[in-house]
């Protein structure tokens, strides 16, 4: 099975699992899944988030997702429990499609690590 085919199958399986769990079966998009990862990484599940906090949660998720690729490194948790990352290496310029593939691959790898999918 090619790498692209395997990524596509794993992505579809992941979207199905998360959509059934968090959106009554309506497919979650990439941004929604990134937001869920941010909430997971923060560990504060049962609360409402303001707009700026939602953006910060997505930033946390992106840093965490791209950490294994060498782009970010975890630094510390602040007094409110929010994780902070530092940039280790700037992301190369990517076209929109390349960016999407990178994020989907990183998300799939994250959920393999968390043993939600294999």
Describe what this molecule looks like in 3D.
The protein has one domain. The longest helix has 20 residues. The mean pLDDT is 94. A hairpin with a 5-residue loop joins strand 1 and strand 2. Helix content is 57%, strand content 9%. It has 118 residues and is mainly α. It has a two-stranded antiparallel sheet with strand order 1-2. It has 4 helices and 2 strands, in the order H-H-H-E-E-H.
The Cα radius of gyration reads 15 Å
Note poorly predicted spans: none
Residues in β-strands, percent? 5-15%
Gap from first CA to last CA: 15 Å
| Most strands sheet | 2 strands, antiparallel
Shape: globular
Number of individual domains = 1
List the helices and strands and how they pair.
Layout: H1 3-22, H2 30-42, H3 51-66, E1 72-77, E2 83-87, H4 96-113
Antiparallel strand pairs: 1-2
Helix pairs in contact: 1-4, 2-3
Features of the shown structure:
mainly alpha; about 120 residues; two-stranded antiparallel sheet; about 10% strand; 2 strands; about 55% helix
Summarize the structure.
Helices cover 57% and strands 9% of the residues. The protein is mostly helical.
């Amino acid at each position: 099975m090619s790498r692209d085919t395997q990524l596509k199958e794993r992505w579809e399986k992941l979207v199905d699992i998360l959509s059934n769990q968090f959106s009554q079966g309506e497919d979650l998009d990439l941004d929604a899944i990134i937001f869920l990862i941010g909430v997971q990484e923060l560990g504060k599940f049962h609360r409402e988030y303001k707009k700026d906090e939602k953006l910060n949660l997505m930033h946390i998720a992106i840093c965490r997702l791209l950490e294994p690729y060498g782009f970010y490194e975890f630094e510390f948790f602040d007094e409110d429990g929010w994780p902070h990352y530092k940039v280790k290496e700037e992301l190369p310029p990517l076209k929109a499609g390349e960016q999407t593939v990178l994020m989907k691959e990183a998300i799939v790898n994250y959920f393999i690590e968390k043993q939600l999918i294999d």
